[in-house]
Specification:
261 residues; Rossmann fold; 4-stranded antiparallel sheet; binds adenosine-5'-triphosphate; ABC transporter ATP-binding protein; ATP-binding; P-loop_NTPase; ATP binding; nucleotide-binding
């Protein structure tokens, strides 16, 4: 049995359209946060949806030796938490209730006290306890996005699939939210995959990155090894520099858009 996530020969797409073609990802060990990078329409959301069991897939998708597509939906939902790109709706529920109902939907095994403790942990880890009693309809977009993430984290899935979880967040919250997810996967031995457009944030916070281009895997590995001007030119069509900042962390500086080939 291979511990962690194995994707081999994975194709994913929609009824009339295959987007991801025969993708092989090096095994992702437990405790890893993987950043999924790539230009618009590269296939990041399609791949995350496919791993989550939405849409059409083929190939091997296995978590800790268990083939996910073979699992009953309820079991798969308990193992895999998926946060779509769209924000949770501005419902009249308070944030606590929204997270409680997400927890109950998948973790019927938790009694009231365990559920309450899990909710407090999720709010605390994300630093949003102050939002617990606010109505979803009265929260900002970024605040709702953080509650959406709490709805996934409260279930303690073994695999978190997060589609641009920082798209509505400001600088401080982008970093703290991604670091909270990284700390949670490290502490529990879960795996997180986060589709993200901010490459410098990915370099800083992710253990590994995978770069998609036109539905195929272009490169995967440690951020400092994968994020190079050549990969950025091929995947994003930009001329760039990768320079070490004063703290020694690689930083991407984009100089210009390359002409479309
Ligand atoms: N429901 C759908 N039916 C058919 N094709 C779709 C559907 N949703 C997305 N696509 C197509 O799949 C391709 C990949 O889209 P996807 O949303 O996976 O890209 P992405 O890398 O997540 O992009 P972005 O960074 O813009 O969110 C695109 O060409 C898109 O037009």
């Amino acid at each position: 049995m291979t511990a962690g996530l194995v994707l081999q020969g994975v194709s994913a797409g929609y009824r009339n359209r295959r987007v991801i073609e025969a993708l092989d990802l090096p095994p992702v060990p437990p405790g890893t946060l993987l950043g999924l990078l790539g230009q618009n329409a590269a296939g990041k959301s399609t791949l995350l949806r496919g791993i989550a069991g939405l849409g059409q897939t083929r190939g091997t998708i296995a978590l800790d030796g268990t083939a996910l597509p073979a699992l009953p939906a309820a079991k798969r939902a308990a193992l895999v938490g998926y946060l779509p790109q769209s924000l949770p709706p501005p419902s009249p529920l308070v944030a606590y209730e929204a997270v409680l109902s997400a927890c109950r939907a998948v973790r019927a095994d938790l009694g009231p006290q365990a559920a309450e403790a899990a909710i407090e942990r999720a709010f605390g880890a994300l630093g949003i306890s102050h939002l617990a009693l606010r109505r979803m309809s009265e929260l900002s977009g970024g605040q709702r996005q953080m509650v959406g993430l709490a709805q996934v984290m409260v279930r303690s899935p073994r695999l978190l699939l997060l589609d641009e979880p920082t798209s509505a967040l400001d600088l401080r919250w982008q970093l703290s939210v991604v670091e909270a997810v990284r700390d949670a996967v490290r502490a529990t031995g879960a795996i997180g995959i986060v589709a993200i457009h901010d490459i410098n944030l990915a370099i800083r916070a992710c253990d590994q990155v995978a770069v998609l281009a036109h539905g195929r895997l272009l490169a995967a590995g440690r951020p400092a090894e994968v994020v190079t001007p050549a990969v950025l030119a091929e995947s994003f069509g930009v001329e760039s520099r990768v320079e070490a900042c004063s703290q020694g962390v690689p930083v991407v500086l984009v100089d210009r858009a390359l002409p479309r080939s």
